[in-house]
Structures are given as C-alpha cells and as structure tokens.
Design goal:
By secondary structure, this protein is an alpha+beta fold. The chain has 21 helices and 19 strands. α2 (30-44) packs parallel to α13, α9 packs parallel to α12 and α12 (326-343) packs across α13. The model has no long low-confidence stretch (mean pLDDT 85).
C-alpha cells in the first residue's frame, strides 16, 4: 500500500515537472503571483509580524537555497519561497516607513492649521479640504487631514494655508467580519485623521510653502476642470463627466452611481484600461494620420514609433490628471509596455506584459493587492488576455473571411463575449466585497459599447486637448449628450426585474480557491490547466456551507442588528449606530431599511410596551431585551449569551443554531496591526 502511494506521488511529481518543462516560457508569469502571495500573507496576519522573525526566516531560506542550488527542481522551490518572502518583506517595510509619515490620533477637538492640497465633496454636498503640513496650534503633525467644512462652495484655492477649530478622529473600524478596513486604507494613503470644522475657516500666510509645486498644480488643474464642468452641465451628467475626465467621482449622484453599478457599467466611472487604452490608441492613429500628410517624412522615418512615443506621453498626462488611481496606474503600465513593444517590434499583448504591470504596481504599492479596484481590474484583464491567447487566431481567421456586415456582427459579438469573460472573472470579487453582481451586463455593454468606443472616447480626447486652450466648451457639450444617453441606458437596465443577484455567502477561503483555480487556468496553456477547475468548484461549493449570523454587534457595542423571523437583518434601537456602520450593514448583511411604521413598532417592542413574535423573537422590559431566549441585551450596554457576559469591545458575530450558541469577534488577534490606533 505504501509503495503504491509512493509511486502515485512520484507519478504526480513527474507530471508537474514535465508540464513545467513544456511551459518554461510561462514561469515568469508566476513571479507576480508569488510576490502577491507574500503580500497577502502579511496582510492576513491578525497581529503585526515580528521584524526579526521575518529577517531570520528569510536568511534561513537563503542559506537553504545556497546549499541546494544544484539539486534538480529543488532550487526552484526555494526561489519561489524567496519571491514570496520578497513580497512579504516589501509590504512590511513599506508599512514601517508609512508609519513614520502618519499620526496616530484619538478623537479630539483642537485648533488645526495647514496647507490645502485637494478639494472634494462629502455625501451631503459639503466641501472637504485635504490639509498637508498640518499643525495642532504650533505642534507639527504628520500625515494629511481631511476636514469637512460647513460651506457648500469652495472658498479657497489649492495652496492656500488655513486654520480653524476642528474635531478630528481616526477612521471607523470594520463593521463586519473580513470587512473593509478603512483604517488601513487611510494609513497607506497617508491620512492621519478625518473630521469637521467647528468654526469659520481663516486664511493665513504659509510659513513654509509646499515644495510639491507640480502636485499642487495638477490638483489645481483637476479642480478647475471639475468646477468648469459643474457650472456648464446638470448634476447627473457633470458627475459622470468629471469621473471620466479627471477621475473625480465624489460629484456623482448616488442614484446615478447605483444605476451604473447595477447595470454592469460601473467600470466606465473609473479611469482604467478602457479609458487609457482607447485614448492612447486614438492618439497613436491620429499621429500616424498626421504624419501621413507629409510623405517625405513618412519615407524617411518609421512614423509608427513616433506615434507610440506620443501615445505614451499623452497617456501619462491623462494618468496624472485622472488622480493616479490603481486601475489607471495598471492601465498606464500596460499601455506603455504595449507601445514599447511596438517601438522595439515585439509582441505587445501577452500575459508577460500583464505580469510586468502587476509586479511594478505591487512593488511600488503592495497595499494595492487588498484593494477592490486592483483585484477586479487585474482579474478582468488576465481573463481577457488568456481568452485572446486561446482564440485570437480563430477569430482573426473568421474575420478575414467575413464581409463588412459579417465584421460588424463579429464586433458586436466580441463586445458580448469580452463582457461575459470579464464578468465571470470579476464576479467572485463582486460577490465577496459587495455581495451582489449585475446580471444584465451583456445587454448594457452591447448597447453602450459602440457609444463609448466611437463617440465618447474621441470626444474625451478632444476635450482634454482643447481644455488647456480655453476652447473645450463644444466637445464638453458633446460629451454631456453622450453621457446622458449612457445615464438613460443604465437607468433602464438597472430597473429591469432581477437586474442584481445578491449573495452574501462567499467566504474568504472560498474566494481564495476560486482565484487560485482561475489563475491556474489563465497562466498555463497545456492540458493541465484544467486542474484549475477543481479548486473553483470547491470554492463555489463553500458558499452552500456558509452560516449567516443571527446578530451582529458593532465595534464597542455601538450598534446592534438582528435577524427577524423572515431571515432579514434589522437594526435594533438599543444603541446608537453611526452612518458608516449602518451603510456597511445594508451592503454586506442585506440589512433592510425599515418603514416608518416598522421603526415605531420596533421602538415599542424594545421599550417593552408590546411584542410581535410573528415578526421578531424579541422580548423586552425596563432593564433588558431577550433575543431568541439566548441573547440578553441589557440597557446598561452589557450583552450576555447563555448567561455569560460577552466582550464586545471588538464587536461580535452571534450564531444561534441547533442549540449550539457561539460568537466570534469582528476583529481577530490580541495585538494591533501597525495601521491601527
């Protein structure tokens, strides 16, 4: 029996070795994957890893690699481990460096001053300013501070120094398990605290004017474009135009944003591959067309290379103006690699190109790995390139034999197929992070694809070129009309029955298995790529074994939501819940928004004046409420499960099933991560 097991293991190892040998040209693609695994391991720890342990393990594997460097295949295992360590160390060292640039601040009221580096708009329409070089009275503070003012119109300019009385506080902590870490996001953005002005804001003279003149100038240009667009267009169109021109999405009305998301066109609102890729191609062909007007120049020089350089330069300018979001940086790197390939007459679109882009982004910004935009954008592009590598030859052959009408049909079919591939690739991330995915993306992209490609993108390019000369009015009006058509399409599609599939049962390990299987299928080209189907199936199956909590308690006990008899989560008026937590609960737990009558009845139940066990199993008196005869919610803030007081300082998920009651904290670990206060 043991000999058979050994033989099977040897056979399995031999199969892997043979397949790796036959796909040596693809092993380079594994580098960013292994590097990302290291970053993921770092962010996956509950407590901050010890620096000396990290260094010791890394050196130990270096020694092992040196000792076994001549062993066939074994040295590749150590190389892979060292690449994983490189990702881990990169993330840890950048976290340590970032920790010196931000200030750990508890909630406080103070007299704050600083230099305005950016403007944005709050959800309530109030102006928010981002302060650099901030100080608490005369005490210098590290990091940036985002302050919401009481004004609804901009009163100052970027580069002005101001002071005010303000209340500042750290980022909110997660409201759900494995939830969005706002504190981590702020930490890596260099944001020390957020807050609101309690007084009038006064302009003061700058003691040390910012040396980041280029950054301030770019922010000023972006803000001027935003203000110009807001003045000349209605809010519904202006918000979308600002998003695609300069990457400013804070002005998009919530209803419009929901329509784009629920119809599957949310990617249009973020400057990414669609925008940078199309714009750079337009620049490439325009430059070649203009060069063709001068035959002597065309004969003497390879205009294709000049056009590629122009496309790189313009896409870089667009990247800066758009705010340098992660999808835009990824798109720029890929675009640049494509045109560098044209300059040196190499194959441009390939998985190797994508791996270079991913590695550059991850080395410079390891935090990007845990951002939704990075995950979804790279997932879509990886799947599309894998599809292109597999079927590009067949599609080209069909296109060559087709008539003009056939080519048009093929183009429309390509839109649907590409959308389907990208939607399948991004669906796991949409389900995990947002717990929903759009079902009619194919229809939306079929209707909007030609409008975006043949009308909106050329107009966006024209607007960007003419705006610096003060003659961007007419292309912007054309852009407004095109966006209004998109707004109409997304509104109609999102209003269709069952336009959104809501699923709140994909857990972290299920996502990891699906991603691992998807990467295996996309990276390899031989038959063993089919092995990736197995982890995908297992990952999907985990959704059916996921247990939903019966009650969720927010961090510090500030807010409670419980499941009613219909299986819907509803907020209990026993503790004050902040708006951020309530929003996260509605998105992640599908918590319902009660009607006025339901709110009134729930208050009466919690006060002990009435009961409604047909709706929710909750009994209350003057001192406590009892939920499902298991959870005791005392009016003094204590929460007991089966008579034992729970520690809800870190929040809690409470499960009540088959008499086996238990709870889990929202945040695991006894220590703190470097980004936590």
């Amino acid at each position: 029996m043991i000999e058979k097991i050994k033989y099977q293991l040897w056979k399995f190892g031999r199969a892997i070795s043979e397949n790796l040998s036959s796909e040596q040209n693809r092993t380079i693609v594994l580098v960013p994957v292994l590097f990302a695994i290291g970053i993921g391991i770092y962010f996956g720890f509950d407590n901050e890893p010890n620096y000396w342990v990290t260094l010791g393990l890394f050196e130990a594997f270096l020694v092992l690699f040196f000792l076994f460097r001549y062993k066939e295949n074994l040295h590749w295992i150590f190389i892979g481990i060292l690449i994983i360590f490189a990702g881990f160390i990169d993330a840890q060292m950048q976290s340590v460096y970032q920790n010196k640039k931000v200030e750990k601040i508890a909630e406080t009221s103070t007299y704050l001053k600083g230099e305005i580096s950016e403007f944005s708009l709050s959800t309530k329409g109030k102006v928010r300013i981002l302060l650099d070089k901030a100080a608490d009275f005369d005490k210098p503070l590290n990091g940036k501070f985002r302050i919401t003012t009481i004004a609804k119109n901009k009163q100052f300019e970027i580069g002005d120094c101001v002071e005010m009385a303000a209340t500042i506080f750290p980022a909110s902590l997660p409201a759900v398990k494995n939830g969005y870490r706002l504190d981590r996001k702020y930490f890596f953005e260099g944001l020390s605290a957020i807050g609101y002005a309690k007084s009038e804001i006064f302009k003061i003279s700058c003691e040390n004017k910012s040396s980041l003149a280029a950054k301030s100038k770019i922010n000023s240009v972006r803000q001027n474009i935003v203000e110009y667009v807001n003045k000349m267009m209605p809010a519904d169109a202006a918000g979308v135009v600002n998003a695609v021109l300069v990457g400013e999405k804070t002005y998009i009305p919530q209803k419009i944003s929901d329509n784009y998301r629920n119809s599957g066109l949310a990617h249009f609102l973020s400057v990414s591959g669609l925008h940078l890729g199309t714009i750079s191609l337009l620049v490439f062909f325009v430059v070649r067309f203009l060069a063709a007007l001068f035959p002597k120049f065309t004969v003497m020089y390879d205009t294709k290379k000049f056009a590629a350089v122009a496309a790189i330069i313009f896409s870089f300018i667009y990247l800066l103006i758009s705010g340098r979001a992660v999808p835009a940086e990824r798109a720029f790197i890929m675009t640049a690699v494509v045109f560098i390939g044209i300059i040196y007459e190499r194959q441009a679109i390939s998985m190797r190109m994508l791996s270079i882009a991913a590695l550059v982004v991850l080395v410079l910004q390891p935090y990007a790995l845990v951002s939704v935009s990075f995950q979804m954008s790279f997932a879509a592009v990886t799947a599309l390139i894998a599809f292109y590598e597999k079927y590009a030859g067949k599609i080209a052959a069909i296109s060559a034999r087709s008539s003009v009408f056939g080519k048009c049909v093929l183009y429309l079919a390509g839109i649907v197929i590409c959308d389907f591939v990208a939607s399948v690739a991004t669906a796991p991330f949409a389900l995990y992070h947002f717990h929903k995915t759009a079902l009619y993306t194919g229809i939306t992209n079929l209707l909007s694809g030609p409008i975006i490609a043949f009308f909106l993108m050329p107009v966006i390019l024209l607007s960007l070129v003419l705006l610096p000369f003060g003659i961007g009015f007419y292309p912007l009006k054309l852009l407004e009309k095109g966006v209004e058509v998109l707004n109409f399409i997304t509104a109609k599609i999102s209003s269709l029955p069952h336009s959104v599939l809501c699923v709140d049962s994909l857990n972290f390990w299920g996502l990891v298995l699906i991603v691992a299987g998807g990467l295996w299928i996309c990276i390899w080209q031989q038959k063993w790529r089919r092995w990736g189907i197995l982890p995908i199936i297992i990952g999907v199956v985990t959704m059916f074994f996921h247990t939903e909590p019966d009650m969720v308690v927010a961090y510090g006990g500030q807010g409670i939501t419980a499941r009613d008899n219909n299986g819907k989560m509803i907020e209990l008026p026993l503790a004050k819940t902040d708006g951020w937590t309530r929003k996260i609960w509605q998105e992640n737990l599908q918590m319902i928004v009660p009607s006025g009558q339901q709110k009134k009845q729930l208050k009466e139940i919690c006060s002990g004046r009435t009961e409604n066990k047909n709706w929710i199993d909750l009994q209350c008196d003057a001192e406590k409420c009892t939920y499902k005869n298991a959870v005791e919610l005392r009016k003094n803030g204590e929460i007991l499960l089966d008579g034992k007081i729970l520690d809800v300082k870190k929040g809690a998920y409470i499960y009540l099933e088959n008499g086996k009651h238990h709870f889990e904290p929202l945040i695991n670990g006894s220590g703190k991560r470097i980004w936590e206060n």
